[in-house]
Records
---
Amino acid sequence: MSLRLQARKLACERDGRWLFRDLDLEIRSGEILRVEGPNGSGKTTLLKILSGQLADYEGSIFWRDAPLRRVHRNFLASLLYLGHAPGVKAALTPLENLAWYQAMAGTGGTEAQRMSALEMVGLRGFEDLPAGQLSAGQQRRVALARLELTPRPLWVLDEPFTAIDREGVADLEARLAAHVRGGGSVVLTTHQALDIPVPMCRVRLGEGKGNVAS
Ligand SMILES: Nc1ncnc2c1ncn2[C@@H]1O[C@H](COP(=O)(O)OP(=O)(O)OP(=O)(O)O)[C@@H](O)[C@H]1O
């Protein structure tokens, strides 16, 4: 079934200030939506709204043409959200972190799958160290290994390139391209220049109401 996430006349206010107003956007299978804007313009807030984590907004969101609030459970089964912090548990090893993520996602999975995912993000040899002893970029890579492990068609990724080295950036760009070419969708924020040869729409915040350009 093809994907379609739409927002109509979205508005969100914080501390008496509109982060965005009258914001329309849409993302379908095979597309990347990039949310841009300066620090504090509301990118994280918009991603949390679009991933069903915040309810204090105005306007409407539709998932596959149904109101998001009505099909929330179904929507969550299609979503993989990675926040701007890596979200790894410092006392757990990368392997244990991935097992924990899988349990939270309600999926099973084998240690062989988790090892393979860690290998794909360049963490072979680090699987048994407490994650708190890994570098910032390595901790980010543990979080990114979830993209390999939890097959979900809609990815919402808040600054996924943070702390990643140049080779890792190229690998992640290729991973994102493969996902959308396979029919998936990605909503992301990044301050990184991207080189991904797939259809990409942009939403710019911080310029008044939140302007949409493609
Ligand atoms: N729960 C909250 N209560 C009050 N204000 C908030 C809350 N969450 C965010 N804000 C404010 O909303 C604004 C937008 O925050 P947000 O994190 O969405 O920005 P951002 O564009 O992602 O920023 P950055 O590029 O720095 O990550 C900020 O000024 C922030 O202080």
---
Amino acid sequence: MRDILDLERYPLDRPDSVGWSDLVNQCQADLAREGMFNLHGLMRADVAAQEVARLSSKFATESFRHEREHNIYFLDHIDGLPDDHPALRRTHTSNQTLCADQIGASALTRLYEWPEFTRFLAATMGRSALHTMSDPLARINVMSYHEGQTLNWHFDRSEFTTTLLLQAPEAGGAFEYRTDLRSEEDPNYDGVARLLRGEDPEARILTLSPGTLNVFKGKNTPHRVTKVQGKRDRVIAVFSYYDRPGVQFSEAERIGFYGRAS
Ligand SMILES: O=C(O)CCC(=O)C(=O)O
Ligand SMILES: [Fe+2]
């Protein structure tokens, strides 16, 4: 993995070393404080650039244009919530998505399936194990956003989301998030409505650099990607892991996110 990752800086391949334990402790502290951690420059910059070049023709010809109006839940209706509640305010999303079956054998697939990577991620989250998805489309996605495009406010399906930025835009395309806006016990619909009005003082903005791994607790932390500005696309890989093996999206979810079920 040394050909694609900076393992001098991040010793993911040496789980018995002090350096590995120190890194895990640091990530755990960041997760507890911020709901996320970042490994800047985990993927080598030239490898990230090669992936962008390799995928650019696929983006041009076979990507799914994910374009829709949606609410923060990506659901048509929430039981117990009137359909006109401001927490259900609709926003617009537009980007291009490539699914795992289109990405093929690549540095991204190698990283996603590398057992030491899963082991490291599980340790940062205080879990005994994490598992790759069996969903042939959802396990790895690469998304590109060109000028004016955005992924609007949403909560994720999985508790943790793991992304790796491959190419940064000239401007915009920042990751905006609001840590722990809701919990399993409290959906905090009024807090959601306030965030959607742009009035939540706890919302934070993160500007990622290419090669950076970002792990964040997206299930209760709403987040969005602000509009990309300039000619260079924002390109980012999204890896999905779950605490049990064999997880798949439903057919309806696949059609919503990818425009196809298989
Ligand atoms: O593009 C990003 O930085 C965020 C991606 C994301 O939130 C998601 O795929 O759920
Ligand atoms: Fe997300």
